[in-house]
Amino acid sequence: MIWHSVALMTAIGAAMFAAGVAAVAISQRLRSRPAGVQDDDAADGRADGADTSFPMLVENSDLAIQILRPDGGRLFINRACARLFGFERPEELLALSPFAMVAPEDRETVRQALIDLIRRDRGRILVECETLTRDGGRFRTETHLQQVRWNGEDSILQIHFDVTQRLRAADAVRQSEERLNNAQRIARFGSWDMWLDTERLEISEEGLRMLGLGKSAHPLRVGEVLSRFHPDDIATVKQARAGAMRNDTPYAVDYRIVTGDGETRFVRECGEVARGEDGRPERLSGVVQDVTELRRAQDTLWEQESFYRELIGILPDTIYIHVDNRIVMANAATVSMFGADSLDDILGRDPDTLIHPEDVRAIRARRSSYTIVGQRSPYARFRYRRLDGSYFEAESCSAPIIWQGKPARLIINRDIASRLEAEGALRDSESRLKEAQRIAMVGDWEHDLDAGTTLWSDELYRIFGTPPADAPRTRQAFIDMVHPEDREALLLSMSMTEKTGTAVTSNYRVILPNGDVRHLRTTREYLSGKNGPKGRLRGITQDVTEQKLVEAELRESEKRFRDLVEGSVQGVMIRNWDGERRYVNRALLEMFGFESVEAALNAPPGGFVAPYERERVSRHAMARLGGADAPADYPVDCIRADGTVFPAHFYVRELKWMGAPAFHISVFDLTDLKHAEQALRASEENFHDMVENSHLGVMIRRKNGERVYVNQALVDMIGYESADYVMKLDQDGAFVAPHDRDRVCDYVYRRRAGDSRPTDYEADCIRTDGIVFPAHFYVRETEWMGEPVVYTTLVDLTDVKRAEHEVQKLNQELEARVEQRTEQLRQAQSELVKQERLATLGQLTATVSHELRNPLGAMRNSLYVVRNRIDGTDSQLSTTLDRIDRNITRCDGIIEELLDYTRIRALAPVPVTVDAWIEEVLDEHPIPPGVTLRRDFRMPAAAVYMDPARMRRAVVNALENALQAVAETAPPAGDRSPEVTIGSALRDDRVEITIRDNGPGIPAEIGQQVFEPLFSTRNFGVGLGLPVIRQIMEQHDGGVTLNSVEGAGTTVILWFPASFPAPAAAASGS
């Protein structure tokens, strides 16, 4: 509301100067006046020197202030407050009821605000109401209510702010002057004369009243009057009078009197000696004045100074005082406006250093124009300088004052930005005010009873729907326009006003010329005649037709409200202050199981509350009735008519019911709510247990980064002692490893800024012991305790990463094994193919060998017969027969080799001493002449398992190949001669049998073909020697290695594991 801000800014601006000057004046007044001393000027409300500033500045303050007693009586009103309500002097308003100037429709609101402030001991209340001026005008005010101490008593401070700026009516001045004259008449001064020879007293009527004495038929004596004096003050009065007579000087003395009702009042007596014609003292004459309030005001000056200082401290504009060009006092707003860190930065400064250099001269010129103490300069706009060197504009005013006995100047600066805004709002408010006056439909009138003429305002013509020329000019013409049913009552009220002179308000209807019926409300008062004996009637008339319509709607609304209350699901009960139930709704009956309204209303006291709760509820009710603090809403167990107890909640409010104070009690059945709360608590406990017992770390943070929850799993994960320590970590990403911290913090900052950001990511974290571990962050936005938060789940990936590493390692091993197994399968497939081929070859060989051996056997037998017949006589024939015999033997050997290669037999391993076994094999095999056989045995005592027969076949084949190779060597040249070396050794847990020769070697291009079956480099043989060797060694889980250098010889190594299985294992393996 714009009018609200206008009133607030205008009132605060005026309050600054008045409150500041008043506080300074109070301080100077307290310091300059000796305690207990009053003079005539002070009795008149005036003071000289420093004291002149206090009444003048307070009375001229723009802040409308009044102080009330708790019972509503006014204690203090300043001039601004009186002017606000259309009065010139505060005394005029003091005589009225505190609610007299509040519009009737808002009086209850203000009264309730005061009751609320007192009963609940609330520090401050703001109430808005429609307020009346003395001349009958209406304007809107905001009133700030606050409890204070005033004159040593609990009081209520009221500060009124006019939010409409309505001009006062012209006759308010006249009425203010009349009240001023009346106030002067009751100034409470009394005069007296005391004859010294007879001690007879003559005292005026006001003096008698002041001294608590009534009129007496006989002359008063000094003793009678002294009986009213306080016993402790009688000697002081006598001494002052005696001194005046002795020194022939005027005197003044303060003393106390005790009134008839026991009240003690302070009186100031001033007198002088009157001498007779002979020059001797004849009598004492003087005046007495009741200075009780003045003495009490003096005792509370320090309290008032504290009050005004506090008021200055809370004002939003700057107030500071400088003496001799040095700032000696400043409020908090000054520190803030000039950008200071503390009050010490302001105090002691030259005030001109806080002014823009270009405005210093103008401000000094204004100071020289206003030199009278208390004379305030008008507000003007200037530029000021903050302590940091920047400049700002403000409106400023100043006034010369006395500060601690020295000339000083009070400066007030107002924020110009707020002022400009307020001025714009004021213009809008004034425009709306004019519009409101137009539509308020209020007109004034005056009727001269002697002349019988009536004067109407322009608005009244519009209300009656007639132009001025056609308006009723006489009283009877006006009565004729009144609705016939309302004429008698209106005439009666008019007559009452004329007879009693009291103001009377009438409601009636009029019939307009166009036939419309309007409802009017007129308030009239009687004024004594000036031009005749009858006088005048004056009043205001308002068109309340719309109000009547609204009242009708209100009645309808009340009916709808009652229907609404009756249809409510919550129980409602109205109870007056003596505990009597006046109303219950249908929901309350059903809630408590009553069959009828009468049963509920007549239930015994406390019948709605469980027995064990009745004492507490009764205590609350008694406290509330006594004006003490009591809870307005509280839970309580209730009891139904059938005796069942259920939880409920009471909401208690004060209201008016049928014109009397009462309590409105709303009752809520909490049965379902309690069940829901229990379920919710169980759910929360389950959730809490689930989160706390989870192996996942959980952290909840507000949007500003503040942590509000971490679970134990997160605390254990990062190695801290407790969750409280984690909650206090300041740095974002405090437990993220340094190399990932910037990235994670960037995610956090982007999330706070509302930008896109990853919600699932991995980062390395660091424990308190410095160990870095991998983790995964899951970030989600959700709500926690009704506010948006960021929910982060932290998963320790140490085991996952270890498992991934193990899986990767196993995958690599698996790939190697698969590759190895694939190779083995390829070899097995090749071996299978070879075995199939060998099986086929074996079958073929068996058939061929059988078919060949029979003729070979016949040939050998025939050769034997032939050899016996020739009996060695023919040498040529013997040579031929020998050739035939060798070839038969050779063919038989070829057949044997084929059968041996194709027929794979199971091994029969036995423990064998390798070196001794090789010696036996060599001893059985002839060595051709010219060939040197060397032995290199290195396993003299080593015994291993092997099949001696099969191994013999392998060694013999290798040895024969070596002997055949050296046999092909050219004749020895130099020191080279055919040589074969056979040896044994145990290397890398395997047995090696080596046969090495120095023959011609094997060409490199056929080195890989020598192990293929049926491949041979000689003209004789079938090429099965090396394949048989390899077959035998593979049966022993070993192999054969061939190294050959063409022209240097060949080395064949037969090897098998030293741990070759025993016969049982070999059998099971085969």
Could you please describe the fold and organization of this structure?
It is a single chain. The protein has 1070 residues and is α+β, with helices and mostly antiparallel strands. It has eight domains: 2-185, PAS domain (Beta-Lactamase), CATH 3.30.450.20; 189-293, 2-Layer Sandwich (Beta-Lactamase); 317-424, PAS domain (Beta-Lactamase), CATH 3.30.450.20; 441-550, PAS domain (Beta-Lactamase); 572-670, PAS domain (Beta-Lactamase); 694-796, 2-Layer Sandwich (Beta-Lactamase); 802-876; 907-1069, Histidine kinase-like ATPase, C-terminal domain (Heat Shock Protein 90, 2-Layer Sandwich). It is 42% helix and 27% strand. The strands form eight sheets. The protein has a six-stranded antiparallel β-sheet, with helices on both faces. Strands 2-1-5-4-3 form a five-stranded antiparallel β-sheet, with helices on both faces. The chain has a five-stranded antiparallel β-sheet with strand order 13-12-16-15-14. A hairpin with a 3-residue loop joins strand 37 and strand 38 (1049-1057). It starts with a helix and ends with a helix.
